[in-house]
């Protein structure tokens, strides 16, 4: 354990040392929430990846690849589509964010629909949906600490140890806000996705050359995908890809990355940088998982494939390095979740009802982050057998933000009535259907609850746009927003109307 935990401690100390050395003190809420929109494409790309791929990716999708084979490749598809959406959304979202001092995803929703209620509702849905995934991320550290302890710690004690470490890490997240998150994302991202890819490619080479494991060695079932006549249904895989792609930008922790860039050009360039990094890392992980299914011990514990193969191939030193990779990915995702949640609590929930100055907003954000950290840490240490089901349910719910968000950015006719009604009905219907038909809907050809609810959400949104057309003033305001996104200067009357709701 001196080797495994020694390596982990050294990396943890490196990250903390870099944060301590940077010595950032935020003076405004924009500094704290979006780092004053100051990061270039390199930081943006790594920050996106370090939030998008959590530490649980090695257990959940590594295990899925080891269990079901090529079906797991849908991760590759929706991850690349998510980056394409970032490229498409970059211009309007960043320009509106800069022009109207937007700090959160609900800020954008409130601006687009001229309604604080729309912003508050989207904030509440985002916060509630994010908690189960935050807890899962903390619990994933339990598997890591159990392997690094070489079986000395029980799983429950390993979870407690992992939660303790990640809670200590949040001291710097609470202190430094988004700028600290993005700076640490660069260090953690290099370790997780550059270092992780190198390790994965090395392990794949070892399995092929030393163990003789190739795709020809795999069972035929590993190459089967859900389709016509399958138990799941022909539209099941489509649903996974669709909700994964559009759902990514519904998460506040992902969306806020659109506000931290220093320009539209940096955002688009970061998308170009993220594509090859994402493709290489995710592709290597899934190929590794499939080949790893033939290594002894993996069939009975597929979620542990990364640790099992690392230890067999390279002993304790490689196991320790694998631990660094998983910890680095976990810290990035958890840090981002907690920071984004705290910012929304201050800006979009409390701040919408109380008139807070800059200093008070920062204090409220820090208090919210501390509260979320303690709540999530406590929940992670409990035995919650239905937690993963709750997390899946939360994902089906959070994608309901996609309709008002994407249509709001690209279509002028949407209004606050449709946004509010669509989100409420869509979220409630997704939760109801997921509870009745967990996983997929057999009567809908395999569509998931989130996609069916999304269709209903969209119908409501479009219907409301035609039933309650914009007033003349509102149409001028929306036209001004879209003109600004297209690079046209705001006219004086438009500048007065195209405002962020007070």
What can you see in these coordinates?
Mean pLDDT is 89; it is low at 493-497. The chain has helices spanning 2-22, 29-34, 41-52, 57-68, 74-99, 105-113, 116-148, 155-209, 236-248, 252-255, 264-292, 305-350, 358-380, 387-398, 402-410, 416-436, 449-467, 472-485, 492-497. Helix 3 (41-52) packs parallel to helix 11 (264-292). It has 2 domains: 2-382, Up-down Bundle (Sodium/glucose cotransporter); 385-469, no CATH class. The protein is globular. With 502 residues, the protein is an all-alpha fold. The termini are far apart. It is built from 19 helices and no strands.
Q: What's a quick, concise take on this entry?
A:
This protein has about 500 residues and is mainly alpha-helical. It has helices spanning about 1-20, 30-35, 40-50, 55-70, 75-100, 105-115, 115-150, 155-210, 235-250, 250-255, 265-290, 305-350, 360-380, 385-400, 400-410, 415-435, 450-465, 470-485, 490-495.
């Amino acid at each position: 354990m001196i080797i495994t935990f020694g390596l982990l401690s050294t990396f943890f100390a490196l990250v903390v040392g870099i944060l301590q050395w940077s010595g950032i003190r935020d003076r405004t809420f924009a500094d704290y929430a979006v780092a004053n929109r100051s990061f270039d494409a390199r930081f943006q790309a790594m920050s996106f990846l370090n939030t998008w791929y959590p530490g649980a990716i090695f257990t959940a999708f590594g295990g899925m690849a080891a269990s079901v084979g090529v079906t797991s490749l849908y991760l590759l598809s929706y991850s690349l589509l998510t980056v394409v959406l970032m490229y498409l959304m970059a211009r309007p979202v960043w320009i509106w964010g800069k022009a109207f001092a937007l700090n959160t995803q609900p800020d954008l929703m409130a601006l687009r629909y001229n309604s604080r209620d729309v912003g508050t509702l989207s904030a509440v849905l985002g916060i509630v949906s994010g908690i189960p995934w935050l807890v899962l991320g903390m619990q994933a550290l339990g598997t890591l600490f159990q392997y690094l302890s070489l079986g000395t710690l029980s799983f429950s004690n390993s979870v407690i140890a992992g939660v303790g470490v990640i809670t200590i890490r949040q001291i710097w997240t609470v202190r430094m806000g988004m700028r600290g998150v993005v700076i640490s994302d660069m260090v953690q991202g290099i370790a997780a996705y550059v270092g992780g890819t190198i390790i994965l490619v090395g392990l794949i080479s070892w399995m092929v050359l030393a163990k003789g494991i190739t795709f020809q060695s795999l069972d035929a079932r590993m190459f089967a995908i859900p389709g016509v006549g399958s138990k799941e249904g022909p539209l099941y895989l489509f649903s996974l890809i669709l909700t994964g792609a559009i759902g990514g930008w519904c998460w506040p922790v992902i969306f806020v990355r659109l506000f931290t860039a220093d320009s539209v050009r940096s955002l688009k360039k970061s998308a170009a940088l993220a594509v090859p990094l994402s493709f290489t890392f995710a592709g290597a992980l899934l190929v590794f998982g499939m080949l790893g299914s033939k290594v002894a011990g993996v069939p009975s514990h597929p979620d542990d494939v990364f640790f099992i193969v690392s230890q067999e191939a390279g002993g304790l030193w490689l196991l320790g390095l694998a631990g660094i990779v998983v910890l680095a990915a976990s810290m990035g995702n958890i840090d981002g979740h907690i920071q984004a949640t705290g910012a929304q609590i201050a800006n979009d929930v409390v701040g919408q009802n109380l008139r807070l100055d800059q200093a008070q907003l920062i204090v409220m954000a820090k208090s919210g982050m501390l509260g979320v950290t303690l709540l999530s840490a406590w929940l992670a240490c409990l035995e919650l057998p239905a937690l993963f089901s709750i997390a899946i349910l939360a994902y089906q719910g959070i994608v309901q933000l996609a309709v008002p968000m994407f249509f709001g950015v690209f279509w002028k006719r949407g209004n606050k009535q449709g946004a509010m009604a669509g989100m409420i009905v869509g979220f409630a219907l997704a939760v109801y259907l997921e509870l009745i038909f967990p996983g997929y809907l057999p009567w809908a050809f395999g569509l998931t609850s989130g996609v069916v609810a999304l269709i209903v959400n969209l119908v409501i949104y479009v219907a409301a746009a035609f039933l309650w057309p914009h007033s003349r003033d509102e149409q001028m305001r929306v036209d001004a927003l879209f003109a600004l996104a297209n690079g046209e200067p705001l006219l004086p009357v438009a500048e007065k109307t195209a405002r962020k709701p007070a």
